[in-house]
Amino acid sequence: MKNAETQTKQATQTTNANEVTPRDLTNAIRFLAADAIQAANSGHPGAPMGMAEIALVLWRSHLRHNPANPHWPDRDRFVLSNGHGSMLLYALLHLTGYDLPINELRHFRQLHSKTPGHPEYGMTPGVETTTGPLGQGLANGVGMALAEALLAREFNRDGLAIVDHHTYVFAGDGCLMEGISHEAASLAGTLKLGKLICFYDDNGISIDGHVEHWFADDTPRRFEAYGWHVVRGVDGHDPAAIERALLEAKAVANQPSLICCKTIIGKGAPTKAGTHDVHGAPLGAQEIAAARVKLEWPHPPFIIPEAIYAAWNARREGAEREAQWQRTFDAYALAYPDLAAEFRRRIAGELPSGWKEFAEDHLFAVEQAAATVATRKASQNALNLLQPKLPELLGGSADLTGSNLTAFQGAIPVRASDSGPGYGNHINYGVREFGMSAIMNGIALHGGHIPYGGTFLMFSDYCRNAIRMAALMRLRVIFVFTHDSIGLGEDGPTHQPIEQVASLRLIPNVHVQRPCDATETLAAWIAALDRRGGPTCLILSRQNLPTLPRTPEQIAQIARGGYVLADAEGGKPDAAVIATGSEVEIAMQARSLLAREGIGLRVVSMPSLEVFDAQAADYRASVLPEGLPRIAIEAGVTASWQRLVGVGSADGTHGRVIGIERFGESAPADKLFDLFGITAANIAAHVRELVAQAKPLSI
Length: 699
Ligand SMILES: Cc1ncc(C[n+]2csc(CCOP(=O)(O)OP(=O)(O)O)c2C)c(N)n1
Description:
Blueprint: H1 4-14, H2 22-40, H3 46-50, H4 52-62, E1 77-80, H5 86-96, H6 102-106, H7 136-155, E2 167-172, H8 173-177, H9 179-190, E3 196-202, E4 205-206, E5 209-210, H10 219-226, E6 229-235, H11 239-251, E7 257-262, H12 285-294, H13 306-312, H14 315-335, H15 337-348, H16 355-369, E8 372-374, H17 375-386, E9 393-397, H18 401-404, E10 416-417, E11 420-421, E12 426-428, H19 433-446, E13 450-456, H20 460-473, E14 478-482, H21 500-505, E15 511-513, H22 518-530, E16 536-540, E17 544-546, H23 552-557, E18 563-566, E19 575-579, H24 583-595, E20 601-605, H25 609-613, H26 617-623, E21 630-633, H27 642-645, E22 655-658, H28 669-675, H29 680-693
Parallel strand pairs: 1-2, 2-3, 3-7, 6-7, 9-12, 9-13, 13-14, 14-16, 15-16, 19-20, 19-21, 21-22
Antiparallel strand pairs: 4-5, 8-17, 10-11, 18-20
Helix pairs in contact: 2-4, 2-5, 4-11, 7-9, 7-19, 9-19, 14-15, 16-22, 17-22, 19-20, 24-29
Thiamine diphosphate (TPP) binds next to helix 3, helix 8 and strand 4.
């Protein structure tokens, strides 16, 4: 038997540079995918094999990218929305010359490889977004295309287009069945995102089999109804037809395009092509061997002849393209030095120097103003203050702008014009919470803006998987969730969040901030903007809340997530109450009640449990000393707090949580707070019991 090296040599010699055919190039994709999936004994060969010709045309003849610099700001963006076909993307990145050696493909889906089961942003050079949850990639692409259009409006000057690129998306039946793709496509059509081009891999197959039994939409007409330009009936295995379709799509500047490609899933697999067997399982050694014969690919697994590598390699053109852009940028920098510096800063995601000191100075002013306002209103005030310093803020709301108060003074709504979206800095996302969230992820991924968007906290459940994706990708996206509890009153249980705050806290990398007044609200915005490690959810009240008195030291401590807002008079607490948001005021009232009885209650305001948890142990212990009886109060399920107050702990610490473990009711807010015991009297009653049980304590 020949050893691998001899086989390699022979195989490599069989193809010389002049003889490389399109079939050789697509074979390289097909066999890298099939062999890697076979080696991993898991994965999805169907989409990579079925989309090989589409990938060939797009990646070799159109995609403006530079494999040596995946961060070049004006590169075209590519999104594999059907992320299960990850081996297609890995093959393309490897073949075109990204830093993704063949060894990484050999280790597809293995621990610590750069080739995880689904493409993951930040793990593999050239992967623009994490995809796998179907439909969201397309929505990310809409966000990227929107970011591109808005930045172009803001920064480009006559003859100096420093922002001028396309966003390309591959999507399958699964993506187009998902509701989120409807939400995102509808907005993309309305806003006339002409530089968004999506290839629909119309292979008629999903996991359960032939989609005609559960997906009989007329997709082209549906997209036409959204305002897209649709290229129908393209043979997805004919490079010339794909090329024509792509040129047609690129020529349409004020409509996004959908190129509908008829393909055969798993094309090239002799017996399994066209069946759902090839969608999500290795082909098997026998089928791959037969495919090698059928497609005349004699090369062993993971061996690609040099001539084929050379034909795929995009480093030289990539370097030229980037150098050409750099020349434009240099001319731009000469003509508009300030704008050029601002563009660089925005793309790097750095905030302007001095912004934080500026914002923090205002914390004192807000504290001194001692206004009684809803925290949603305090949030708008914070935006009014911050936005002139931070033009990268790109706001929006899912049709609740006047309720979420996301529009700052002078906000310019993003509107379509004849040539695509006009300049703006506030987006009416329409009633599309999930779409909004995934589009914001795309905007953040593109770079140049910090997106934030609002809806009622209740509907954070609609946003949820996109919040999770923002957390997984560690994106700076800010979710503005207002109407945060039974405090919203008469709208009733459908609109009253009970479990939402606790459930958002369960998502790793998410910071939840539930400020109690105007000062904490501004501090929460500062923290969210300053944070680069993930998204923040701002949880804001509908009802007015008074600004509570603080010393400068306490104002500084807000950034630690939790702090002593008011200690027992005389500094000797008998118990501590931990509260967030609107319940902090109630805790303060309980403190006054108990003080009259000689019981000392420490009030700990804890706008962010995650931030507090990340503080040093001695700081945490200074706020919540061991042995001091604790009560937590929050107008929602109690799950977040049981650990912190020691419910059920073996060490004898005992605590309680006052919360709401059932759905709300339709009634005025004050009646509901009484009904659910979210009152000063109830806190006081629990504290009396706790203090009576507690051992004497000296701190
Ligand atoms: C939101 C979501 N639901 C379900 C899945 C599981 N899943 C992965 S691929 C797939 C079928 C996709 O079909 P299609 O887009 O036609 O892909 P193809 O068969 O062409 O590879 C499903 C249901 C998923 N990844 N994301």
